[in-house]
Amino acid sequence: MNIETLQEYCLSKPGAEETLPFGPDTLVYKINGKVFLLVGLESNPLQFNVKCDPDTALELREEYPCVLPGYHMNKKHWNTIIVDGSVAMATLKQWIDWSYDLVKGKPKAKKK
């Protein structure tokens, strides 16, 4: 996975938007105004932050050396993924999907 593939995948998610709230070097992907992925454009190798269920976040860190506590994020809920070729692209996409789904959440019930 490279930055272009990552951008395309994130923007393919329904309602996703790409923003630059922290300056020109950090892309932030949001759904419903909430962040589901951050990526530094200058990172080499590519690395990105995704939100994760706290228990799953710990399990992934134990299983995969390329998964670290979220850099500059709440380490209970965020992981940093280093794209070093050790994890298949399908797995990386699954982690992005989990983050997107977690942040998107369930639609709020309308008040009567």
The gross shape turns out to be globular
SS element count, helices: 3
Helix/strand class: alpha+beta
Q: How far is the first residue's CA from the last residue's CA?
A: 46 Å
Please identify the oligomeric state. Answer: single chain
Mean pLDDT: 92
Write down the CATH topology: Aspartate Aminotransferase, domain 1
The biggest beta sheet reads: 6 strands, antiparallel
Organism: Terrimonas ginsenosidimutans
Keywords: DNA-binding
GO molecular function: DNA binding
Protein name: MmcQ/YjbR family DNA-binding protein
Structure description:
The structure is a single chain. The chain has a single domain, classed as Aspartate Aminotransferase, domain 1, CATH 3.90.1150.30. 31% of the residues lie in helices and 26% in strands. The protein has 3 helices and 6 strands; from the N terminus they run H-E-E-E-E-H-E-E-H. The longest helix is centred in the last third of the chain and has 16 residues, at 89-104. It is globular, with a radius of gyration of 14 Å. InterPro entries: YjbR (IPR007351), YjbR-like_sf (IPR038056), YjbR/MT2646/Rv2570-like (IPR058532). This is MmcQ/YjbR family DNA-binding protein. One of its GO terms (molecular function) is DNA binding. Keywords: DNA-binding.
